[in-house]
Design a protein that fits this description.
Order of helices and strands: EEEHEEEEHHEHEHEHEHEHEHEHE
Number of helices: 10
Bound molecules: NADP nicotinamide-adenine-dinucleotide phosphate
Number of strands: 15
Helix content: 25-40%
Structural class: alpha/beta
Strand content: 25-35%
Distance between the termini: 10 Å
């Protein structure tokens, strides 16, 4: 089979498509024939070698994908050859034609959901779910600002929050992105490039402020998020690419919380529980992953450049 292999950390060009041996499942494992692979910003940080988690080389990136079960190891009971599935992490790296996965981190892909949409599930949707419901403890009737709603995590958060009965305000940096955020369920949409958007965001709550803010770029926004929180408001730091300056007094006066969130910290039980809820959302069509770009696996380098560019529009997937 073919797989992307990285033999040295560096720019997107270090990713090379190579012929590698076919995968064989051990006990409790399955091999998935991938039809689509999710590209996440974290793949680019790891490829560059700048991320706290440094994989040993040679390395095949990727945790997300969807396809059909090719073979199953002994003791596997939930799947058989040919079943449509999506994966939530794998042992072998997902930028490939096959991936080796533990059975417990593989989930059924409903017939109405495409492989590309399945590849958009794991990191984006589980991050949005864990940030909203496990960390922020968001409840129906609350108001959430999804700061950076046009990307993969943002669209997932908009759909999840709307389905749970929150009032949803989303932001995007392009017209196309804002149209998408509205179409996917935000009650209001703002431009995070406009200097006055924090005032507009506060005005949309009648001056009360936000119960929850999901922050995709904390280094830019955290200092200005705090003054637009409601009493007992919670900001969840989902994305951050530098340091931020804050006035901590804004947290005191509101009994507010700044909550970090990394999917790496989720226990296996938590991941499995989150995906059980996500599969239900796919089945009842409250969750509808949006695919912005499909790029051939051989052009993974182009996907890594695209995922770091402004003007996000849903998910970027690779097609093996
Ligand atoms: P993505 O699809 O590339 O989306 C990036 C989002 O950030 C877009 O909506 C983009 O909007 C928005 N953005 C750009 N400038 C912004 C600003 N000044 N203020 C607010 N938002 C801004 O990436 P993703 O997969 O959704 O991931 C989003 C971030 O979360 C990334 O930094 C990623 O590394 C991080 N993440 C963290 C975890 C975790 O476990 N903590 C998990 C997944 C992702 P426009 O392009 O429309 O301007």
């Amino acid at each position: 089979m073919k797989a992307i292999r990285i033999k040295e950390f560096g720019g997107p060009e270090v990713m090379k498509l190579e012929e590698v041996p076919d995968l064989k499942p051990g006990a409790g494992q399955v091999v998935v024939r991938l039809r689509a692979v999710g590209v996440n910003p974290v793949d680019t940080y790891m490829r560059a070698g700048t991320y706290p988690r440094k994989p040993s080389l040679p390395w095949t990136p990727g945790t997300d994908g969807a396809g059909t079960i090719e073979s199953v190891g002994s003791g596997v009971s939930r799947f058989k050859s040919g079943d449509r599935v999506y994966i939530a992490g794998c042992l072998s790296g997902a930028y490939a034609e096959q991936s080796l996965c533990e059975e417990r981190f593989v989930f059924p892909l409903p017939a109405n959901v495409s492989f590309a949409q399945g590849a958009a599930m794991h990191i984006p949707y589980s991050t949005a779910f864990r940030a909203l419901f496990h960390r922020a403890q968001a409840r129906g009737g609350e108001t959430v600002l999804i700061h950076g709603a046009s990307g993969a995590v943002g669209i997932a958060a908009v759909q999840l929050a709307r389905a749970a009965g929150l009032r949803v305000i989303g932001t995007a940096g392009s017209d196309r992105g804002r149209q998408l955020v509205t179409a996917e369920g935000a009650h209001e949409v703002l431009d995070h490039k406009a200097p006055g958007h924090f005032d507009e965001a506060l005005a949309l709550t009648g001056g009360r402020g936000y119960d929850v803010i999901l922050e995709m770029l904390a280094n830019v926004n955290l200092g200005r998020d705090l003054p637009i929180l409601a009493s007992k408001g919670r900001v969840v730091v989902v994305g951050n690419r530098g340091s931020a300056e804050i006035d901590a007094r804004h947290t005191m006066t509101r009994d507010a919380s700044i909550l970090g969130m990394s999917m790496w910290n989720a226990s296996p039980e938590e991941v499995i529980s989150i995906h059980s809820a996500l599969v239900a959302g796919l089945e009842n069509k409250t969750l509808r992953p949006v695919i912005g770009q499909e790029i051939p696996l051989a052009e993974a380098a182009r996907a890594h450049t695209a995922v770091m560019e402004a003007g996000a529009y849903g998910k970027i997937v690779l097609i093996p």
